[in-house]
Design brief:
By secondary structure, the chain is α+β, with helices and mostly antiparallel strands. Among the domains are: about 100 residues, Phosphorylase Kinase, domain 1; about 190 residues, Transferase(Phosphotransferase) domain 1 (Transferase(Phosphotransferase), domain 1, Orthogonal Bundle), CATH 1.10.510. The strands form five sheets. It has a five-stranded antiparallel sheet with strand order 6-7-8-10-9, covered by helices on one side. Strands 4-3-5 form a three-stranded mixed sheet, with no helix packed on it. A two-stranded antiparallel ribbon has the order 1-2. Strand 6 and strand 7 form a beta hairpin. The chain is globular, with a radius of gyration of 22 Å.
């Protein structure tokens, strides 16, 4: 006899039902009377997906199609259209919290109704190098400020002049702003022999040759119109342009080509660390060698106030002679005296630090946790809880003890000690990048040559 809790609105086509209150925006699928969670369900043909939360827009990208296995809660930024349809056969899970403070809730937005993260229960696949598997993907959330800052990591505040934070900008305004940080000219006059290498979450990567020098380069092409968070493109340009280190991928130049951002960078033909992990097994000397190079890159970035926020095997690239470099700066953040901590939900679920998942203020120490997870990945062949859904893994990382190696007894004492220092739940007790460089485990790190055999084995299997 009581009135129904939900108002039902049925569309003629497609056959799925949309549930919303009379006052809710049409994109909402389910609204409760007190805390109307907003659903945007995306289905697509592509197997690449990413999720981006924004605090200034009512749209939410919250689910995966069950038919495409994913490594993480991610959605490709190259898909221009989104569907509001929902597959009635795909099981879903909601990550909800009963904690007293909304800041500790993974799914709570500071300026919007409560959100629920849902995903398929299919297990993600290990190898990211085969066509049937997905490329590196991440979960992002806008910064803790109620207003969105277009240039959130630019080390030079003057670069954001002309665009006010929090305001929506048109496509042409965004292009004009981007034009201030890129090189002038048309790279198509300088480059030739384009060959597609692969696709990432933000664009397509090609191999090309410079006409004048004959140097082979990598060119990342990103369509501005297909980016869910266009401001993240500035990270790709500004961070790689302003911060140079021997263990960081070097950017040569960047251009605006019609509606695309082209980033020309050094070509690393040794593949990614994910390729190595997926096809071979690494010994402790090789693991220590990778850790040493990554820690040197992190020491440099952290000294400049840069948090990478997406350390994982996909972000580590190799040269043919075994040198190791850090890449993928799309999700990095700048900390300073004015903003000493961050609080955004950013990263890839299986590598996320507990404080990131809990939405507690954090700093560069989140990169150390992710490095520890990457070490487990190198030893075990995959990160902890990888057979579980991303949300379940995030809940275990947030609430449980630090993950351990599957075969603890096979790891050396120095390796276990290294992991214990990196995977402390308390970020205040967690070792810094500088402190980890003094760990005995890194003494056994070898020259780049010790990585070459792994690269050759991977290339033989291609």
């Amino acid at each position: 006899t009581s009135p129904p809790r939900y108002h039902v609105h049925t569309q003629m086509s497609p056959p799925q039902s949309l549930f919303h209150t009379p006052t809710s925006p049409p994109q909402s699928l389910i609204h409760t009377p007190t805390s109307p969670p907003q659903y945007h369900v995306h289905t697509q043909i592509s197997h690449q997906q990413s999720i981006v939360y924004t605090e200034s827009t009512p749209q939410r990208s919250l689910t995966h199609s069950q038919t495409s296995p994913q490594r993480s809660l991610t959605h490709t930024e190259s898909t221009p259209q989104r569907s509001l349809t929902h597959s009635q056969t795909s099981p879903q899970q909601s990550l909800t919290h009963t904690e007293s403070t909304p800041q500790r809730s993974l799914t709570h937005s500071q300026t919007s109704p409560q959100q629920f993260l849902t995903h398929p229960q299919t297990s993600p696949q290990r190898s990211l190098t085969h066509p049937q598997t997905s490329p590196p993907q991440s979960v992002t959330h806008t910064e803790e400020s109620p207003q969105r800052e277009l240039f959130q990591v630019s080390a030079s505040p003057s670069r954001s002049a002309g665009l006010s934070a929090g305001g929506r900008v048109s496509h042409e305004q965004f292009k004009a702003a981007l034009q201030t940080v890129v090189n002038q000219g048309d790279p198509r006059r300088r480059l030739e022999s384009f060959h597609k290498l692969g696709e990432g979450s933000t664009g397509i990567v090609y191999k090309a040759t410079e006409k004048d020098t004959g140097r082979r380069v990598a060119v990342k092409m990103m369509d501005l119109r297909r980016q869910q968070r266009r401001e993240l493109l500035f990270n790709e340009v500004v961070i790689m342009k302003d911060y140079r280190h021997q263990n960081v991928v070097e950017m040569y130049s960047s251009y605006l080509v019609e509606d695309e951002l082209w980033v020309v960078m050094e070509l690393l033909q040794g593949g990614s660390l994910t390729d190595i992990i997926s096809h071979t097994r690494m010994n402790e000397e090789q693991i220590a060698t990778v850790c040493l190079s990554v820690l040197r890159a992190l020491c440099y970035l952290h000294s400049q106030g840069i948090i990478h926020r997406d350390i994982k095997s996909d972000s580590i690239l190799l040269t043919l002679d075994g040198r190791i470099k850090l890449s993928d700066f799309g999700f990095c953040a700048q900390v300073s005296k004015r903003i000493p901590r961050r609080q955004s939900l950013v990263g890839t679920p299986y590598w996320m630090a507990p404080e990131v998942i809990s939405r507690r203020p954090y700093g560069p120490e989140v990169d150390i946790w992710s490095l520890g997870i990457m070490v487990i990945e190198m030893v075990d062949g995959e990160p902890p809880y990888f057979s579980e859904s991303p949300v379940q893994a995030m809940k275990r990382l947030r609430d449980g003890p630090p993950p351990k190696l599957k075969l603890q007894h096979q790891a050396s004492r120095n390796l276990r000690q290294f992991l214990n220092c990196a995977l402390l739940r308390d970020p205040l007790r967690r070792a810094s990048a500088v402190e980890l460089l003094t760990q005995p485990f890194l003494v056994q790190a070898g020259p780049p040559d010790c990585i070459v055999s792994l690269i050759e084995e991977w290339r033989r299997q291609q």
